Amino acid sequence: MLAGALSFLPAGLGGMEAAMVSLLLWQGMAPAQAVAATILIRLTTLWFAVALGVAALSSSRGPQAQPS
């Protein structure tokens, strides 16, 4: 988590992934598996929540008034 915060990007993009892959490699996981696991984790934890937020935001706005 600290590596993600040090990247100064929203949700620690880049730094969090690099730290996660590095830790998985350090534990002996194959590089391809470490990258795949990191992508899967970030898709399910970060981007799923972003998609839900976008859907909620777009549905809460209601119909837009047309300018005349």
Structure commentary:
- This protein is mainly alpha-helical and 68 residues long.
- The protein has a domain at 11-57.
- It is 69% helix and 0% strand.
- The protein has 3 helices and no strands.
- α2 packs antiparallel against α3.
- The mean pLDDT is 82.
Protein traits:
single chain, 68 residues, mainly alpha, elongated
- Mean residue pLDDT: 82
In whole angstroms, the N-to-C terminal distance is 50 Å
Secondary-structure element string: HHH
Please outline the major beta sheet.
none
Whole-angstrom Rg: 18 Å
Helix count, DSSP H or I runs of 4 or more residues: 3
Structural class: mainly alpha
Q: What oligomeric state is this?
A: single chain
Q: Strand share of the residues?
A: under 5%
Q: Helix share of residues?
A: 55-70%
Query: What is the global morphology?
Result: elongated
Tally of extended strands? 0
| Low-pLDDT residue intervals, each spanning 5 or more residues | none
Question: What's this, in brief?
Answer:
This protein is an all-alpha fold and 68 residues long. It has helices spanning 2-6, 15-26, 31-60. Helix 2 (15-26) packs antiparallel against helix 3 (31-60).
Topology:
Layout: H1 2-6, H2 15-26, H3 31-60
Helix pairs in contact: 2-3
